Amino acid sequence: MNLGLKGKTAIVMAASKGLGKATALTLAQEGASVVIGARDKKTLEETAQEIRSETGSKVLAVQTDVTNLKNLKTITTKTVDEFGTINILVNNAGGPLAGTFEDITDEQWQKAFELNLLSTIRMTRLVLPYMKNAKSGRIINMVSISAKQPVENLILSNSIRAGVLGMAKTLSDEIAPDNITVNNILTGNFLTDRIKHLYSSKEALNKMTNNIPLKRLGKPEEFGALVAFLASQQAAFITGTSIQIDGGLNRSLL
Q: What is the pLDDT, as a whole number, of residue 194?
């Protein structure tokens, strides 16, 4: 299927590794020019070169901390300077600190807000003028099933990520007349560094996997494929929704 992404420009945040990297790679494979941001400059540059070599697409690497507004303005400006506009934004950031309600301090709540909600708000605000000018755009937020089905010991993620869903749903109504779609992807368990950190023992990892109806972890390329579809021409009538990709882990009806 031709997704119609050739000639489009995408920004993918937190894209030096994990699901962000898989997303950037898939978009580049579909012919999009990709701008990737992450904090670790060395890893980011290595990822950019890997994607260029594998796909032949243009890839721009911009060192970016999503909690730093100046950095967000820089990656936006450099994207427009290099490619002229922004067609696709994939908001992504690492997960906040694990812990229970009584464990978490005010400072940790503030950091989680800045990492997972405020960064999404800021980056979306920065790209909207270009999408509105083009009367077209795709905003895709990488969230977590914790926003819909709270996960034990992850109160920060459970709370802050739910805020992204509320913001995105409201925004999708406001900018629909400009043919800009806003959607969320609720990720389950993929074999990323964060999962390795949260489930450090083989026993814990096996227990988590056995709780997934498909009895396996997700593959990063499966996630990338969903992002590419939501960014495509074929997904033009999908907006204001949150799509689970979790192997059936979330059992809720809605």
A: 66
